[in-house]
Amino acid sequence: ARMYPQPHQETTSRPPMARTSPVSMEIRDGVALISMSNPPVNALAIPVLEGIEAQVKAAQADSGVRAIVITGSRGKFSGGFDITQLKARTEGKPVRNMSDFNGVLNSIVEAGPKPTVAAIENLALGGGLEVAMACNARVATPKAQLGLPELQLGVIPGFGGTQRLPRLVGLPKALEMMLKSKPVKAEEALRLGLVDAVVPADQLIAAATQLAKDIADKKIPRKMASRDRAKLPADEATAKKTFAGARRQAKRVKHLMPHPWLCLDAVETGVAKGSVAGLATEQDAFAKAVSSLACKGLVHFFFASRSTAAVPGVTDAGLKPRVTKCVAVVGGGLMGSGIATACALSGVRVLLKEINQKFLDAGMARVRANLASNVKKGRMTQQKADAIYSLCTPCLTYDKFKEADMVIEAVIENLDLKQKIFADLERSCRSDCILSTNTSTIDITKVASKMRNPERILGAHFFSPAHVMQLFEIIRTDATPPQVLVDALGLSKQIKKTPVVVGNCTGFAVNRVFFPYTMSACLLVDLGLDPYAIDNAIRAFGMPMGPFRLGDLVGHDVGVHVGQNFIDDFPSRVYESNLIPGLMKSGRMGEKSGKGFYVYDAKRAATPDPEGIAALLNASRAAASGWFKRSTSGELLAMTADDIAEMIFFPVVNEACRCLAEGVVVRASDLDVASILGMGFPPFRGGVVHWADQVGAGRIAARLREWCTAYGGIYQPCPYLEDCAVQGRSLAEGPLRGPDRSKL
After folding, report:
1. String of DSSP letters for 569-595
2. How far apart are CA 645 and CA 692, in angstroms?
3. Whether 503 contacts 634, CB under 8 Å
4. Most buried among 267, 574, 629, 699, using CB within 10 Å?
5. Vertex 310, ends 306 and 313: CA angle to 5°?
6. 215-227, pLDDT tens digit by residue?
7. Sign of the CA dihedral with 261 first, then 264, 266, and 269 last
8. CA gap 159, 576 in Å, rounded
């Protein structure tokens, strides 16, 4: 075997390559084995792309080489293009344009004098799969996942994926894989024709090498995906029908998220005019997508969600999280059973406690129902569901709680009850057991006030349904030991949640930031706006549902109970409407009563009910008529959907600024993650703070001051926001000290 070092080329057009290349080549019996090594997922960073180019060129030029195998080291082929490069580009930083790498794939990987085979172990995603598809054949291991998930980041495949994937798997499947960012496993990839063989990992290189030799010896035909039209629609009408269906879906969000439409442009050009024209369109479309606000927002969210577990002074202090083997959950209601399910799904043993057998049976039944839903959806077998269910032990006493590494209390929001439970837990659990409460609003120190060692408690706030929702708010107090926080962060990783560490305050992060959301919506209704028009405007903004449909889903009694905490603690900046209390008095509690702002059929489908709520609207508006300082009926008629969204979300931004000023979260981007995962804020907008910075602090502060004059303190801009507006600084970076607000 001969080893080829990475060649060094001193040129003016590109910097000299590093001495140790992330791409190596070894010649074995006339086959060049080219291996990428860029841990942890062999991302296609610039040096990797340069290394692939240099090594493939060297192999193609070597008379002792008959064929080429491209693979990845450490059990992975490649997770795709280096996203840090994409981030730099969305931030306007200078980055090298690697669009010429397409020429490398086309001319020397796919169509060079010697055939190429990709040996795919476990992972070939994004640019990684695009490199593999440029090869003349592909061999994969049984656990391999193959896909083009670029649209999740607001871009499109940029290394020929829009051209080769439809030609390898057919147009409908290719569109599904790209537009839905839906990967396929090796078995399906083999059936589709995306890979040519599936072999055990220990046979991968040998099988790929033999296949490469067979192609070189012309025992097997050499295929070039970009030139193959066999799997494309045979007639123009079929192709147009397929694209028309896909574009109907993409058109609804085209103005907000252009990348699905741009992806379709590239694919359709390739189908209609050939892959050369398609590749040119792909490059143009990629450039447009990467410069969009949606790409900027999605890339920001990607990196922000991966930084939430880093807490300065805690996670960098050398502490290691202790493995949580057993979690005890007190309370088997919807939330408690969901938490129990989330833990059991990740292999954590669960003790589920209730106060009587009836409630306990109901709680365990909810866990079983949660698992049954996964079986019904094909996500697991019944055998696996039974094994997971067996991890949950029902309890009527605290006798087994000595086994627990962590306890999560999930009973109703009653302070006296919670205080009694924690006094009992302190006696029943080991001294190193973490005690936590799932309260969504109550001050953690109040819950701990009857404990001998109140520093043991922290908040562990899940979002319902807890086994589905990804966000996990970890609420610390001034007395929370760093090791306890590290252990809680460790649990979040074990159960595959995204943690956000939050300071102890009313509502914590998500509920605190979003308390003006429904209040502002109610204010608009009291001013005369149609609640369904408001819901439609908020859905058009990108939320999964509007505030009134959300209230119906959660239950208006729950909303009023939570909202009372903010009325009590922040009386100068709330708006109290009679709208929802009136709704409740008439028995319209939301989905659970069959009617709220909407009426619900047996399948819980919502239908607006303007006649049913008309009297309630009139009564609420009459009660509010003296609240406002001036009439605005004419202005309301002129409000656009964007105006409505701003009037509802600008006070949310304002409250986020208060949280940043108080140090409630570690960093501004944590609020972005929390708003997306906890409240459904549109990911393509990057989160509530990121979006606000796109709008600009100056505009937001000016509008809030205007509304505050007319409608009261709910719109009073806070000093943090005003300071950023005056100083021209982003909300994420915050204002400078000692601002001069006289200009306002």
Report:
1. H-GGG----SHHHHHHHTT--BGGGTB
2. 12
3. no
4. 267
5. 170
6. 999 999 999 999 9
7. negative
8. 55
In 345-410, where do the E strands start and end? 349-353, 392-395, 406-409
**Residue pair 515/488 in contact by the 8 Å Cβ criterion:** no
Average pLDDT over residues 4-30: 61
At 628 the pLDDT is 73
Which tens digit of pLDDT belongs to each residue from 294-348? 999 999 999 999 999 999 999 999 999 999 999 999 999 999 999 999 999 999 9
| pLDDT single digits (tens) 457-470 | 999 999 989 999 99
List the structure tokens of 331.
């309370």
Q: pLDDT tens across 340-369, in order?
A: 999 999 999 999 999 999 999 999 999 999
Catalytic annotation present for 150 = yes
Report residue 234 as tokens.
Answer: 């045979």
Average pLDDT over the chain reads 93
Is 611 in the active site? no
Tokens of 639: 């409000």
Q: What is the mean pLDDT of residues 661-681?
A: 97
Distances (CA, A) of 125 to 78, 172, 185, 201, 442: 6, 19, 11, 18, 44
Which one from 53, 150, 282, 409 is the annotated catalytic residue?
Answer: 150
Distance CA 734, CA 720 (A): 7
pLDDT digits (tens, 9 = 90+) for 56-97: 999 999 999 999 999 999 999 999 999 999 999 888 888 887
Q: Decide if 157 contacts 265 (C-beta within 8 A).
A: no
Query: 411-439: b or e for each residue (b if 16 or more CB lie within 10 Å)?
Result: beeeeeebbebbeebbebbeeebbbbbbb
Q: How many CA atoms lie within 13 A of 1 on its CB side?
A: 10
Residue tagged 């057991």 (tokens)? 433
Place of tokens 């209609």: 272
pLDDT given at position 632: 53
The residue written with tokens 């029902």 in the block is 394
Residue from 53, 110, 121, 130 carrying the catalytic annotation: 130
CA distances from 287 to 223, 272, 295, 460 (A): 29, 21, 11, 43
Q: How are beta strands 116-120 and 137-140 bridged, if at all?
A: parallel
- Among 649, 294, 534, CA closest to 657: 649
Report pLDDT digits (tens) over 453-512. 999 999 999 998 999 999 999 999 999 999 999 999 999 999 999 999 999 999 999 999
pLDDT at 743 over 70: no
Q: Which of 666, 668, 310 is nearest to 492 (CA)?
A: 310
174: Cβ contacts below 8 Å, ≥ 6 apart? 165, 166, 168, 267
C-alpha–C-alpha distance, residues 61 and 53, integer Å = 12
pLDDT reported for residue 394 = 98
Closest CA to 469 of 676, 690, 306, 686: 676
CB atoms under 10 Å from CB of 517, counted, come to: 20
Q: How far is CA 64 from CA 32, 110, 219, 290, in A?
A: 9, 19, 20, 42
Rounded distance, CA 118 to CA 199, Å?
13
